[in-house]
Amino acid sequence: MITPLSSHMLKIPFALWCGCFTLQAAPVFIGTSPGKTPAGQGIYLADFDASTGKLSEPTLAAAAKGPGFLALHPTLPVIYACGAPSQPLPNGGSAVTAFAMDAEHHLRSIGESFAGGKGACHVAVDPAGHTVAVANYGDGSFATIRLDDAGIPYAVASVVAHTGSGPAKPRQDGPHAHAVYFDRSNTHVFVPDLGLDQVFVYPFDAATSKLGEPLPSLTTAPSAGPRHLAFSSNESHAYVINELNNTVLTTTYKDGKWTIIDTVTTLPVDFTETSTTAEIEIHPNGRFVYASNRGHDSLTVYQRDLQTGALKFLQHAPCGGKTPRHFKIDPSGRWLLCAHQNSDTVSVLALDPATGVLGEASSTVKVPCPTCLLFAR
After folding, report:
1. Phi/psi of residue 2, each to 5°?
2. pLDDT digits (tens, 9 = 90+) for 304-350
3. Residue 350 in contact with residue 339, Cβ under 8 Å?
4. Where are the alpha helices (DSSP H) in the chain?
5. Model confidence over 69-94: pLDDT tens digits?
6. Could you give the CA distance from residue 304 to residue 261 in angstroms, rounded to a whole number?
7. What sign does the CA torsion over 277, 28, 156, 181 have?
């Protein structure tokens, strides 16, 4: 049984921990999938210097079984990972694990919980810091899990399992929840489902961590395969990246109603090989949107109209490796870090905040099967 860290360690105000980080390079945690090197799987740590764009050689911060996606607690020095449990569960399900981070950025597992389903692929923490949500790609379910005052998951509050399928077989042979997001008001959870061509919306009760009855969902084009989404800072627009048809869907969501504004491709018009999208992110200044292409192995850059939300293509930038599963813009807004799942590397690309344009990939480091990047700030 895992012994929790002492309560006084976990209740140190997170601002004090962040204050420690400002005196040195910013820590970047890297989630990995089993891939070709299951013996090396775990959460890795590298230091990023925003003044030079240099990334240090990653080291193993915590051994774990396929901690593919990571999330940070809003107030505590605790990181969450979804993946395989430390010991197999009778139902074959996945787990969400909490790791406490000390002042030297070392991680220690402090507890885990059943993820509510199989094949967990995405995790998020609510703004209040009392709930972690998990999307389970394998069986298409998603769940909310209650956290105690130390940030340790201890009880599954709600599990939702949809039924049905989509036209693009075999990828849409059933529901495949691919991500989970809380809104700023902490009253709704949004869930893109690749298998059903829908983005589901559920009321959320922060006091109990439970989900209510579903609200009207967003239906994408058939065979689109919605994977992830990104909200603008004021939540006036939501951008849905569709994995299967390589598009970005621009929408608004207001008063429980979705309005589709536009759909743009992520690929060059003359590209005919196989490719699927992965991640989407809005620049901190709100003026640019970035999307990754696995196959074309590039990052697509769009200029964003701040009023209408419409996107205008700017650039296809080589990402510097194979299969850009995930990327993250650093807090300064001047660099983009990209994780290449199939070349076992992470690269840094310079980013011009005035134009949105990306430079060439540099400062490439090796890490086994990277699938998520998380700045611990």
Report:
1. -80, 130
2. 999 999 999 999 999 999 999 999 999 999 999 999 999 999 999 99
3. no
4. 7-10, 14-21
5. 999 999 999 999 999 999 999 899 99
6. 13
7. negative
